[in-house]
């Protein structure tokens, strides 16, 4: 007598998993996973439902990346990035602004293939845009009707440019300015330094800015001094100062607080280049040489000891020192490729000249990037991440902390009430030694999602609540790697829509996409992934609050569409009440943008009318079927998809020898428990010995269809949404029998359980 095994699966939380789990009976991913699961969404109840459709919003033929932003309460716009252009659409899909490259290679330099490298961040009514090699751009809305775009420019206060400075050139090179003030001043470097590209850039000599106006050769330039430079001073002593002070020592005056660096020594004096302003100088007595008044004389203090001054000369021209630095961001050093906004500060990172640098503006002052130190807690900051990394992104996340995503490591910066983000507070704590890819991280529900350095896995950062380990990383694609190639975009809505489940979306470079249902449990994050596909080819995904936006190409026409749980078609359009952006040109039909193609029609929400032809002018060609009314207000046109659910065939448990895991098996019955069903089919897939002439493995061989309408139903009305259990006994035996549920007609379907009976 044949042994029978009955496997009932009602938990589908892992979605589609790696097929190599099929013999791993006890693994949780095998128990709650599926061999195939396409175009379904996982519910909180662990059941499956046919995925939502997508509503068409507006055509965007020249743009392949569309993002949504809220500029102020109730004012939502979509930014469309295309080949060397930016278009702005309002919430109704009407274009309200357009900006183009216009032949200027320095502005909006991206192409269709590089749109994924654009990073933007919003602060107030301004959107800051970065791209490799481009000067940051600022897209600004005036709060009414006007959009403008222009270069990001740091604040100017007098002659001082409020930007970051850092020593980028090799250490040890000294600079010698010819004067403390003026224009046309000479500047001499002790080693080759200058190029023609230095003209128009700034340097700081001892923290004072000067503008390079000309370059004669690699060691000689001409400057305009924008802030008076500290000069040099000769300090005399009663005893030989060489026993106390050495070249390079930084010395301080005990009374005046003056500071200088020793640039020359002699038997009776030392020469210092002042590090403080010209009005703060070393003094002896009343300031006259050789006159010492008790209590008013500086004692010069250095690393090797101290000596009282006996003489202090007046200030002379600056001396040659290596205490100077350069602008971090300009046409010579390059521009940051990434930006962010957090803690009321605008930030930049991924600087070509300082790859491990991170810059924060002053609080609520996005153009003030001048670092003045810890004395101003609200001031700008510039910090270096350790380990010679390239910082790609900085992202705020759980517990108000910031996460630093680098090429081969991920750090976090602790921020809380006891340690607010301010100069001197930044400390880099290693979170993971697996770096991040060039995919902008996303935040939702107290989680940070990012892509690993190999671009093939989605990771999460969560706060488990442990005191000594406040954050941890998790791989979310451990059993789903076959669904991911080169990931180029993530989208994570962070608010409820018509359903309460939480999903994350990952787009691959080849246009394929996977939807992951995630849940948190005591810091642990679990995700079940399901691939979503359709007629259209995706080029971008984005999310804002509850909205998920798709940039999709249908038959060569690019449109913007949004996820819509009330639709059962993609690119869904109300044929006889078109959105304004899809208004047909004179003499054209409602589907003018996809002429001579095909479309699926639905009426009264769930009544599928099948596939229709579109003529060359965009009109739907009538078929004359029962109940056909192509003028109905409720008529919706769009593109269908096919949903597939293939369970693993249950394996016999070990026991007394009956050859239970060594014999061919046959599925004697395959049963689906469904609700809200508008039809599906149960089928048998080819899984026998593969020969030269046999069908491909997984080919649908035969099936039984359970239609939306029974014989006595009114096909001119929406089909009944049935709650039923339908079964099918597929023929044939194999070592790996395969059965499948397929929904290939538009409409609702919820799958509660699949039961497979197998005999051996």
Could you describe the 3D structure shown?
The protein is mostly beta strands. Among the domains are: 4-10 and 643-759; 165-327, no CATH class; 567-639, no CATH class. It is 1% helix and 44% strand. It has one helix and 60 strands. The chain has a seven-stranded antiparallel β-sheet with strand order 18-30-21-22-23-20-19, with no helix packed on it. Strands 1, 5, 6, 55, 58 and 60 form a six-stranded antiparallel β-sheet that branches. Strands 24-27-26-25-28-29 form a six-stranded antiparallel β-barrel. A hairpin with a 4-residue loop joins strand 44 (503-508) and strand 45 (513-521). It is elongated and about 115 Å long.
Question: Which descriptors would you attach to this protein?
Answer:
1 helix, six-stranded antiparallel β-sheet, single chain, 760 residues, 44% strand, mainly beta
In short:
Helix content is 1%, strand content 44%. With 760 residues, it is mostly beta strands.
Strand content: 35-45%
DSSP helix fraction: under 10%
Largest sheet: 7 strands, antiparallel
Q: Class by helix and strand content? A: mainly beta
How many runs of DSSP E, i.e. beta strands? 60
Q: Give, in spatial order, the strands making up the sheet with the most strands.
A: 18-30-21-22-23-20-19
Shape from CA axes? Answer: elongated
* Tally of individual helices: 1
C-alpha end-to-end distance: 9 Å
């Amino acid at each position: 007598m044949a042994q029978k095994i009955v496997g009932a699966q009602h938990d589908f939380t892992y979605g589609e998993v790696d097929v190599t789990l099929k013999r791993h009976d006890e693994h949780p991913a095998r128990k709650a996973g599926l061999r195939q699961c396409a175009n379904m969404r996982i519910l909180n109840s662990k059941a499956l439902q046919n995925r939502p459709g997508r509503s068409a919003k507006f055509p965007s033929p020249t743009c392949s990346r569309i993002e949504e932003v809220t500029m102020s309460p109730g004012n939502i716009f979509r930014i469309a990035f295309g080949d060397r252009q930016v278009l702005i659409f309002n919430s109704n899909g009407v274009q309200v602004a357009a900006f183009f490259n216009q032949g200027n290679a320095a502005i909006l330099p991206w192409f269709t293939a590089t749109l994924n490298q654009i990073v933007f961040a919003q602060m107030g009514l301004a959107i800051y845009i970065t791209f490799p090699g481009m000067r940051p751009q600022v897209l600004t809305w005036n709060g009414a009707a006007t959009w403008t775009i222009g270069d990001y420019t740091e604040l100017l206060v007098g002659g001082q440019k409020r930007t970051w400075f850092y020593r980028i050139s090799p250490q040890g090179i000294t600079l010698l300015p010819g004067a403390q003030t003026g224009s046309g001043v000479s500047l001499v470097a002790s080693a080759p330094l200058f190029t023609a590209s230095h003209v128009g850039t700034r340097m700081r000599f001892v923290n004072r800015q000067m503008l390079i106006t000309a370059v004669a050769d690699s060691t000689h330039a001409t400057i305009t001094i924008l802030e008076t430079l500290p000069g040099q001073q000769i300090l005399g002593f009663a005893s030989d100062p060489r026993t106390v002070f050495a070249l390079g020592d930084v010395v301080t005056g005990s009374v005046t607080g003056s500071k200088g660096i020793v640039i020359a020594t002699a038997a009776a004096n030392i020469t210092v280049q002042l590090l403080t302003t010209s009005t703060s100088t070393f003094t002896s007595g009343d300031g006259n040489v050789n006159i010492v008044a008790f209590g008013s004389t500086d004692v010069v203090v250095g690393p090797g000891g101290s000596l009282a001054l006996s003489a202090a000369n007046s200030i002379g021209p600056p001396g040659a020192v290596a205490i100077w630095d350069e602008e971090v961001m300009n046409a010579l050093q390059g521009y940051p490729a990434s930006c962010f906004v957090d803690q009321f500060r605008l930030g930049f990172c991924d600087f070509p000249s300082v790859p491990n640098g991170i810059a924060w503006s002053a609080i609520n002052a996005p153009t003030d990037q001048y670092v003045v130190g810890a004395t101003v807690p609200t001031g700008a900051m510039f910090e270096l991440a350790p380990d010679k990394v390239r910082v790609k992104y900085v992202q705020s996340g759980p517990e108000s902390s910031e996460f630093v995503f680098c090429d081969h490591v991920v750090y976090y910066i602790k921020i809380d009430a006891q340690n607010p983000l301010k100069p001197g507070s930044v400390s880099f704590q290693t979170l993971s030694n697996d770096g991040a890819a060039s995919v902008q991280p996303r935040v939702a529900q107290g989680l940070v999602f990012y892509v690993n350095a190999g671009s093939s896995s989605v990771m999460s950062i969560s706060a488990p609540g442990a005191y000594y380990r406040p954050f941890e990383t998790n791989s979310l694609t451990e059993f789903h790697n076959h669904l991911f190639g080169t990931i180029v975009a993530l989208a994570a809505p962070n608010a409820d829509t018509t359903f309460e489940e939480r999903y994350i979306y990952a787009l691959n470079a080849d246009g394929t996409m996977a939807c992951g249902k995630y849940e948190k449990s005591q810091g642990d994050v679990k995700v079940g992934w399901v691939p979503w596909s359709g007629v259209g080819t995706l080029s971008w995904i984005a999310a804002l609050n509850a909205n998920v936006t798709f940039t999709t190409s249908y038959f060569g026409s690019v449109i913007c569409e949004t996820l819509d749980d009330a639709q059962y078609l993609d690119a869904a359009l109300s044929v006889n009440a078109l959105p304004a952006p899809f208004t047909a040109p004179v003499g054209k039909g409602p589907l003018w943008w996809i002429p001579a193609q095909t479309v699926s029609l639905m009426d009264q929400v769930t009544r599928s009318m099948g596939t229709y032809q579109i003529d060359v002018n965009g009109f739907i060609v009538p078929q004359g079927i029962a109940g056909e009314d192509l003028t109905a207000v409720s008529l919706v046109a769009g593109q269908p998809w096919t949903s597939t659910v293939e369970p693993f065939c249950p394996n016999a448990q070990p026991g007394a020898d009956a050859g239970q895991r060594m014999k061919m098996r046959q599925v004697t019955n395959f049963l689906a428990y469904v609700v809200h069903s508008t039809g599906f089919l149960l089928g048998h897939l080819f899984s026998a010995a593969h020969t030269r002439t046999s069908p491909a493995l997984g080919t649908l061989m035969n099936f039984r269809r359970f239609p939306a309408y029974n014989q006595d139903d009114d096909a001119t009305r929406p089909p009944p949404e049935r709650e039923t259990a339908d079964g099918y006994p597929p023929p044939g035996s194999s070592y790996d029998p395969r059965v499948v549920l397929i929904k290939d007609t538009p409409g609702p379907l919820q799958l509660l359980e699949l039961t497979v009976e197998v005999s051996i």
